[in-house]
Automatic annotation (TrEMBL):
Its main location: membrane. It is found in: Membrane. Residues 89-224 form the Fatty acid hydroxylase domain. It comes from Neoroseomonas soli. This is Sterol desaturase family protein. GO terms for molecular function: iron ion binding; oxidoreductase activity. It holds the Pfam family FA_hydroxylase. The chain crosses the membrane at residues 6-23, 43-68, 74-100. Keywords: Membrane, Transmembrane, Transmembrane helix.
Amino acid sequence: MLAQEPVIRLSVFAAVLVAMALLEHAFPRRPQRLSWRRWPSNFGLVAISSVLLRLVAPAGAVGVAAWAEARGLGLFPALGVPAWVAAPVAVVLLDMLIYFQHRVFHAVPLLWRLHRVHHADPELDASSGLRFHPVEILLSFAIKAAAVVALGAPAEGVLVFEVLLNATSLFNHANLALPAWLDRPLRLLLVTPDMHRVHHSEIRVETDSDFGFCLPWWDRIFGTYRAEPAKGQLGMVIGVECFRADDEQRIDRLLLQPLTPEP
């Protein structure tokens, strides 16, 4: 399975992206006016990040896990935890790591400038789940790789985590209207689009809530859960006020945006 890691990840990514695009078109949550102007930059950023990651770490986090596993490194091997237990536990712990990493990127001004590229998207759809500055992606990979080695996470578990993280990022950024009867129980298991959309409000207290990407439990446990935005799903304003203009969505402006302070 590990030999097929790129094929598995790309296949799931493509399938979820197409599914979200079709569902957004059929059941839109909010009216969109800038979609086609934003897509080249959003997809351009993920293309640049993917190339850089493959240059820095051709085998990715799964390769790091396989390397550590072959050498018996990490907490799980030291404790003698069997792989069938270590793999799902690693998925949950890595998801919690991403939650705390997300909070740190909001709290530290320099890191917020990098992460702000993601929040400066004036509309949300599945492509927003790909819109991260390449430097943030590289930093995130370094943090994740260190955690994988420290845990001694099985490579299969890391692969499942990576697939889930990518798929749920596309899902919870989608401009998708889920009926309330489905959204309410689903957000006990997964971060839903309505839940994560609150996080993209221009109101800072709402921006600093609902940090989860895949599992919604961490926001509830650590007190950062917010069920709905103050102005409602249709009334809320998305993005960062001073970076909402059309020309700020060009990929060259996004790459340089971390150098620009907010007024």
